[in-house]
Write a structure and sequence with these properties.
The protein is of the alpha/beta class and 181 residues long. It has a single domain, classed as Glutaredoxin. Helices cover 39% and strands 19% of the residues. The longest helix is centred in the N-terminal third of the chain and has 22 residues. 29% of the residues are buried. Keywords: Cytochrome c-type biogenesis, Disulfide bond, Membrane, Redox-active center, Transmembrane, Transmembrane helix. It is a single-pass membrane protein. Belongs to the thioredoxin family. DsbE subfamily.
Length: 181
């Protein structure tokens, strides 16, 4: 009797785990970087490979960091929204070109325009790993002290910008460096 029921019990347990796993939202997972300094890096710029920037570029301003790649279909869907954000706001957007070919990335920016103040080239994905990038696109908000305050996984939408990112940026801009959030 036990041998006949055992496969059904195992199947039922597997179905419970499958149901739980499929009901989780991977975007709901909060980044371990939230509240911590932006990871250290020293990367060449996409448009000017002889120049390098590091995490110090974020100091003194609230910034967006957008991990993207030319091969990323969702990034292409998100791109017009980033272009509008860059055109209509003074929010600096930095690109983290993730595991991409430089020529392909440059071609996308030539064709679609660039919303980025600067693009860091992370060909091997090591810096992206430090940021916790698991796929593109991903967008981070970094405050004036270089602290990561927010992470969005997946393509940005108008709703996410209006309800989450823009209010947070406004709050961060109105918070003095000695105040805590």
């Amino acid at each position: 009797m036990f041998r006949a029921v055992l496969p059904l019990v195992i199947f039922a347990i597997l179905m419970v785990f499958l149901y739980i796993g499929l009901s989780l939202d991977p975007r709901a997972k909060e980044s371990v970087l939230i509240g911590k300094p932006a990871p250290r890096f020293n990367l060449p710029l996409l448009e000017r490979p002889n120049e390098h920037l590091n995490e110090q570029v974020f100091l003194g301003q609230v910034s967006l960091v957008n991990a993207w790649a030319s091969w990323c279909v969702s990034c292409r869907h998100e791109h017009p929204l980033l272009m509008q954000l860059a055109k209509h706001t003074d929010i600096p957007i930095y690109g983290l070109n993730y595991k991409d070919e430089v020529a392909d990335a440059l071609q996308v920016l030539r064709q679609q325009g660039s919303p980025y103040v600067a693009n860091f080239v992370d060909t091997r994905g090591r810096v992206g790993m430090d940021w916790g990038v698991i796929g593109t696109p991903e967008t981070f908000v970094v405050d004036q002290q270089g602290i990561v305050r927010y992470k969005h996984t997946g393509p940005l939408t108008v709703a996410v910008l209006e309800t989450e990112i823009l209010p947070l940026i406004e709050k961060l801009r109105n918070t003095s460096p000695n105040q805590s959030l």
